[in-house]
Amino acid sequence: MAQLCSRKYHYETVTLFFNHLSVTRAKPCLLLGLLLLSARVYAGQIIISGVYQGKNLYVQNPLSPDKVGFCANEVFVNDKKTISNIKLGSFEVDLSFLEIGESVTVRITHKDGCAPKLLNPQVLRPSAGFQIEDVRVLLNSIEWSVATENKDFVYNLESLRNGNWIVLAQEKAKGSGNAAYSVPMVHPAGENRYRIRAQDLNSHQMYYSRIVTFDPDKAPAPPPVVEEPEPITFTPKNPKDLITLSADADFEITDSRKKIVAKGKGRRISVKTLKAGNYQLKINEQPLESFVKK
Fold first, then answer.
1. Cα–Cα distance measured from residue 94 to residue 107, given in angstroms and rounded to the nearest whole number
2. Number of Cβ atoms within 10 Å of the Cβ of 59
3. Whole-angstrom Cα distance, residue 51 to residue 123?
4. In angstroms, what CA-CA distances link 175 with 53, 143, 184, 265, 273?
């Protein structure tokens, strides 16, 4: 006669890296000798929670104890089933449909007497303050800003070409906490996809920006460049009779009491009748300049 299992439900939790990144394995009580259980009543599950940083999870999937099939049964991402009927010794959990920085919980159900192994749970580890805050693709450059970097970071500007991410440029971190970067860029014709991949050379942790799409043929034309006029200068600084400007301009001379003593337009300014002393000269809308009349 079958004996009932006297064990209560058993749970064990293994915490990885931080409290918010954890793996939980749960085993229900089994009835010894009872052979009428449905194959869909799973013996346990592994749950891992964290933050999506642009990388997928990889799982090692051993054979089940009966050697007939494999240990893992189904995979759920944020309670949505993404994989079922798993018949592989290792598999990838695709998280690419999530947004960078989005909270994620992955739940893997498995048979009793075995457990799948997460090969890279660290990819869901939060960034401990570091963030790629903004990525801007302009007609002639790509810019990005970061928060809480350190000198051990390196940034790779990448473009998606033929299904592969190719490094176009690399920048070393300034190590200033918050920083901004800009790389000159000539965009190929058509739609381009760019991202920033940041790597901490000390911990080897990778961080990814959002993917930005840019088509130079559809980009608005840059605003026209307005050249600032060259400032007008004057000589000498200690005139006796005459001041000469480098170009025609409106001018105004005031004395030490802010009284206007000369005003006009042209290149040559007569100061012959002015008393010796300190004066200020205003040329067009330029800042005031001083001179001393001999």
1. 13
2. 26
3. 8
4. 21, 17, 21, 53, 61
